[in-house]
Design brief:
With about 525 residues, the protein is an alpha/beta fold. It is about 40% helix and about 15% strand. The chain has a domain of about 230 residues: Dihydrodipicolinate Reductase, domain 2 (2-Layer Sandwich). Helix 7 runs antiparallel to helix 16. Its cofactor is NAD(+).
């Protein structure tokens, strides 16, 4: 092989291993056939296996590192100190003082201090450590993939704040890393762990609503009062990362809160799959206004519309409707509506169920009256009786402590606890890399649809042919004996860790007094 061929081969190899640049967005190849856009689906590399139902060896202790300690990350550190069988090994943020402040949570919990990393590349040094099992990733969106890629290349499981990936290039790279390295790639979609969603999912799985045909989800949240709070890198950064991202990229860039819980109800890639989507948006009015207010200059182009709506059909003949609007005045709304052949569930604008008296009786719940129809919401007494019978076992187990610890009303703590539970018991996680792919792909696929006159776009099969292999979505549980042993091991470790931590902080205080 001559020198030119050697150099070319080297360049191809290096480029294939590098994470996509922060600026490289929405550049995935697609073609239009018969009025439909079809994106390229890369073949699974030889010797690489599916990550469906992926499990890892049991961990007596989950050694975790946190990257990104701003709006969401610092709260996560505090929550984790309430979970037995974990150790916070390292803390990292671009700004060192934010990482240092999180040591206070460890001190309060009598846990030893963690190693501190900071700066633009601090996460890279952190990911090289050998004593980390899981990297918990919560910086700005543009760094979610970069940190996850670095962690997985270095053999770490990852838990990524939403959205876990911003484009199809990042999505496919995370899929390949999870499959090749046999590593969990968990997206921290807390709305899947809200009490109403968990209970409604359990009802749907028990056929209370019949066959679910049509679902709705959304992220409708006026962020006007928050735009100036998002992290800014320097004095030249007037917008902050989130408004800047909406300015530059079109599509539903934050679909996961609305899509995640309803995708689980529909068994997406566990018996059904998203097939085709069509996206539409309004013009930008308030988006441009916010840019002008924050920069003092007229905004001539703002890519994302004030309202984006995406319709998705599934292989089994279901319809999904997803909304994104962070620009206009309105009450917070994730919708979460399930329309079934026998009943209906709705979380926003208020929680409720609609079932007939006969369907309630078939579900094992005695109605307060025999003339209840699905035309109206159930009374509070009837709804409470339904919830009592079909309360999710996850809610039963974690609700009390979750409400005490907090995190969006407790759902964050349930999410973290379930993640640790599955790792400690060697179980498949509740959310896998294909969920991440499906819930994040609406951004680039929606842009393709809208940039081509709102044409249909084929949703790729991220499982590459195995979407119907698993029959039905479910949460994994260990048997009673294994679960009890894992819990006992976790508690025993935490007791010793707290003894060690107490001594650490006492000695540190003594050394400071001597100085």
């Amino acid at each position: 092989m001559n020198i030119k061929k050697i150099v070319l081969a080297f360049c191809i190899t290096v480029c294939s291993l590098q994470p996509s640049l922060i600026q490289a967005q929405y550049n995935w190849k697609y073609k239009i056939e018969n009025g439909k856009a079809i994106t390229e689906v890369p073949q699974r590399p030889e010797g690489q296996e599916s990550a469906l139902n992926l499990s890892a060896p049991k961990m007596k202790v989950v050694r975790v590192a946190f990257v990104g300690l701003g709006m969401r990350g610092h709260d996560a550190v505090e929550r984790w100190t309430h979970i037995p069988g974990i150790q916070v090994v390292a803390l990292c943020d671009y700004e060192r003082n934010r990482a240092e402040r999180c040591q206070d949570y460890l001190r309060k919990a009598s846990m030893p201090a963690a190693a501190i990393y900071s700066g633009e590349d601090g996460y890279k040094d952190l990911c090289k450590r050998k004593d980390i099992d899981l990297v918990y990733i919560a910086p700005d969106w543009k760094h979610h993939f970069l940190v996850a890629h670095e962690a997985m290349i270095n053999g770490k499981h990852v838990a990524i704040e939403v959205p876990g990936a911003m484009n199809l290039s990042e999505i496919w790279q995370l899929i390949d890393l999870s499959e090749k390295k046999r590593l969990h790639c968990f997206m921290l979609e807390n709305c899947c762990y809200d009490f109403f969603e968990l209970n409604a999912l359990n009802m749907a799985q028990k056929n209370v609503f019949g066959e679910i045909l049509y679902v709705q989800g959304a992220y409708r949240h006026d962020l006007t009062q928050y735009w100036n709070e998002y992290w800014k890198k320097d004095a030249q950064d007037k917008l902050g990362w989130r408004l800047d991202y909406n300015k530059n990229f079109r599509g539903d860039v934050y679909a996961t809160h609305g899509l995640g819980p309803i995708a689980q109800v529909l068994d997406i890639h566990r018996g059904d799959k998203m097939k085709t989507l069509v996206a539409m948006d309004t013009k930008s009015v308030n988006g441009k206004m916010h840019v002008k207010q924050m920069t003092g200059e007229e905004c001539k182009e703002f890519r994302n519309g004030d309202q984006t709506t995406t319709l998705i059909s599934t292989e089994k003949g279901k319809i999904i409707e997803i909304h994104h609007n962070v620009m206009t005045p309105q009450p917070y709304n994730r919708m979460y509506q399930l329309t079934g052949t026998k009943g209906f569930a709705n979380k926003y604008p208020f929680e409720g169920f609609a079932l007939s008296s006969d369907e309630m009786k078939k579900s094992g719940v005695m109605p307060s009256s025999d003339d209840i129809s699905g035309h109206s919401y159930l009374s509070k007494a009837d709804a409470d009786a339904l919830i009592k019978k079909y309360e999710s076992p996850i809610v039963t187990k974690y609700e009390k402590q979750a409400k005490e610890v907090g995190g969006h009303g407790g759902m964050d703590f349930i999410m973290d606890s379930r993640l640790v539970y599955c790792l400690q018991n060697g179980l498949p996680l509740d959310i896998d890399v294909y969920d991440l792919a499906e819930w994040c792909c609406l951004a680039e696929l929606g842009a393709i649809s809208m940039d081509n006159g709102n044409i249909p776009v084929e949703v790729p099969d991220f499982t590459r042919g195995q979407w119907n292999k698993t029959k039905g979505y479910h949460h994994a549980y260990a048997n009673a004996v294994d679960e009890e042993k894992a819990a006992a091991d976790a508690m025993a470790f935490t007791i010793k860790l707290k003894e060690k931590g107490k001594k650490y902080w006492e000695e540190l205080d003594k050394s400071k007094k001597k100085k």
